[in-house]
């Protein structure tokens, strides 16, 4: 039986991952933590919840020790656009939080997971079918954090024998908790605005391709990787995964199949556009497929149908 500490539990991934982990391993086995407490949130009310600032190493250790956790899932981080606006805060939070979480895992001998991102790649990375092992010279603070994080997790594995595992997530799309401060957030906003206004103005330009994935596939990937036989893992930090490579007009066309009057226009934000252009168009997930059986169940059309159904139930 696992006892799992989750940081950033009220964020985009955490809000749904905690629910899934509680269903799978038992509500009391998943200790959700976040820097804020929203008392009407299901994550806060469906099992143990503790307030935690991940830059506070002692507080993190005390919570982990008191619940006798054996697994740490460290999600708390600033996303790419916010990190670019506040680079020093991003370094302190993203790297400080990560090293604290790794230290907790080392001292308590826990299994460890933290997400990396397509942001760990940069402008001189091969853009199409980006290999698992390739050039990683990102030009954003978020990317610098993600590459450093991948290396640090590998270091803890080699140096201390810690069971560290990670995934390079593409843009994640979900109808539950909104993302905040990411470059790929447009791919979530477009569904909300389609339903609310029948129109969306994209801050990412036409023809800009990035990898994307529906949240249920991302959550399943985390569980599958954490359950994977360690003897089969050649890589650890972190695996390329993707479900689709798409540009704004592809989302527009998929939405139009359900809402023929939907209109998509563009007003490009130069900061987020530059970040997007420094990232791959499409990444190669074959290492994840070979080493732990990764597969995505949702393509763009299946995801769009589900997003529109679930979101309209939520909004109206
Ligand atoms: C972001 O846009 O910052 C994130 C990511 C791809 O890591 N969604």
From TrEMBL:
Residue ranges annotated as coiled coil are: none
Pfam families from the UniProt entry: Epimerase
Per the record, the GO terms for biological process are:
L-threonine catabolic process
CDD domains recorded for this chain?
TDH_SDR_e
Where the record annotates domain NAD-dependent epimerase/dehydratase, the positions are: 4-228
Gene Ontology MF annotations: L-threonine 3-dehydrogenase activity
Tell me which InterPro entries the record gives: Epimerase_deHydtase (IPR001509), NAD(P)-bd_dom_sf (IPR036291), NAD(P)_epim/dehydratase (IPR051225)
Which family is annotated?
A: Belongs to the NAD(P)-dependent epimerase/dehydratase family.
What is the protein's given name? Answer: L-threonine 3-dehydrogenase
UniProt organism field: Brevibacillus fluminis
């Amino acid at each position: 039986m696992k006892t799992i500490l989750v940081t950033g539990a009220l964020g985009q991934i955490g809000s749904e991952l905690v629910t899934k982990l509680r269903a799978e391993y038992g509500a009391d086995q998943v200790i959700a933590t976040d820097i804020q407490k929203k008392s009407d949130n299901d994550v806060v009310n469906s099992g143990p919840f503790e307030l935690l600032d991940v830059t506070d190493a002692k507080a993190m250790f005390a919570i982990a020790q008191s619940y006798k956790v054996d697994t740490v899932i460290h999600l708390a981080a600033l996303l790419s656009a916010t990190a670019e606006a506040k680079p020093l805060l991003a370094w302190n939070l993203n790297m400080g939080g990560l090293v604290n979480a790794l230290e907790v895992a080392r001292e308590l001998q826990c299994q460890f997971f933290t997400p990396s991102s397509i942001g760990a790649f940069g402008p001189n990375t091969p853009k199409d079918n980006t290999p698992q092992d390739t050039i990683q010279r990102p030009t954003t603070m978020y990317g610098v954090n993600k590459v450093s994080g991948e290396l640090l997790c590998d270091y803890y594995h080699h140096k201390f024998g810690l069971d560290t595992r990670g995934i390079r997530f593409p843009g994640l799309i979900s109808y539950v908790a909104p993302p905040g401060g990411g470059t790929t957030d447009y791919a979530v906003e477009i569904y909300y605005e389609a339903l609310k206004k029948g129109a969306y103005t994209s801050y990412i330009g036409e023809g800009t391709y990035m990898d994307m994935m529906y949240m249920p596939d991302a959550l399943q990937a985390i569980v599958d990787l954490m359950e994977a036989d360690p003897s089969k893992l050649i890589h650890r930090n972190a695996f390329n995964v993707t479900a689709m490579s798409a540009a704004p007009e592809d989302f527009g066309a998929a939405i139009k199949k359900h809402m023929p009057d939907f209109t998509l226009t563009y007003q490009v934000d130069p900061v987020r556009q530059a970040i997007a252009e420094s990232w791959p168009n499409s990444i190669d997930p074959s290492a994840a497929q070979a080493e732990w059986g990764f597969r995505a169940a949702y393509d763009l059309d299946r995801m769009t149908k589900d997003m529109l159904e679930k979101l309209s139930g939520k909004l109206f």
